[in-house]
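General statements about sequence and structure are easier to judge against a single worked case. Part of our work consisted of pairing the sequence of a single chain with a tokenised description of its backbone. The amino acid sequence and the backbone structure tokens for this protein are reproduced below.

***
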Amino acid sequence: MTTKAASRAAAQVAAAGWAVTGEARLGRLQAVAFVGGAQGGTSGSCLLTQGNLALFDGTRLLAIAYAEPGARATIGGIEQLASDAIRL
């Protein structure tokens, strides 16, 4: 499931052609989860492909995490657990 970009960092990701699947704060950093594609599945589910997690300081990209090509699972959404904790 994709979501509308709320932060400037997520807007940058969306402007580059990726689909934002979630956002969260991690201390002073902005975390943005995004995917390259989504396909409809059974029972209203979505199969997300090319999942990534980007960490930004403001609008400056610091790091990108992703699943290895061919991995059985990919990064989907993100959930804020606490001010310094997220769940992918």
Notes: The chain is about 10% helix and 50% strand. The mean pLDDT is 88.
